[in-house]
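SAMPLE LOG
Freezer: B-3
Tube label: C17
Construct: single chain, 255 aa
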Amino acid sequence: MSEQITYELPLSERIRTFLRLEDLFEQMQHFAQYDGEWQNRAELSCLLDILAISSRMDLRSEITKEIERLTKSLVFFSQNPNVDSNKLKQTIEQLNQLTHTLTFSSGRVDRILNEVDLLKSLAQRNSIPGGSCDFDLPAYHFWLNKPLAERLRYTQSWTADLSPIKQSINLLLQFIRFSASPMAKVAKSGFYQQSLDSSQPAQLLRVSVDRDAAYFAEISGGKHRFSIRFMQPFDTERPVQINEDAPFSLHICQL
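STRUCTURE (predicted):
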């Protein structure tokens, strides 16, 4: 386990969506490891959330645009003699392959909802608290009691189209996060503010603090400036800003 906790703030709607999908994919992968009704319910709940996000935007197009933007940045870096040209070439080829896969994928990502009656029924009941109880959806109860191997075959077929999307998002966020070097900062009386260079837009802010710190980072901002407040939580009251200076590590990801 890391000795620090990292808090992130996306600075564009595209990166905000990618972070939400990354979180859902990680949850779905975690729950898929277990053979149990409650884990399977959680896994499918994550899948429905992913499909819901996909239905609100042209996800493949947004990912392709971000890959193209990143590829242009990497091509620019290739002019630097200190860059490992072979590794950079492999990375660009990997990004081009992902673009090819996404471009030639057919149909909408969320089309599985109209093709699989069980998922369609679950999606309709998902907004109702407790709406997927056994008496509400006996077909779901029947499915949850199938052998693990059979359930795995179903879920793998339902998520097949999501594999290149998951891979692309993981790779893009990895590059964005690793594009910045950590800077040691101190928040005076728990507050820090900084302007951003508008000529080189940032995609993501990352703030890391010691895991044993008695406060958390609350980040807010936009394209031009951002602020960080270090807040102390309470059980029955709203968090309050701390009074002491707080050391932290700052990443401004601008790839």
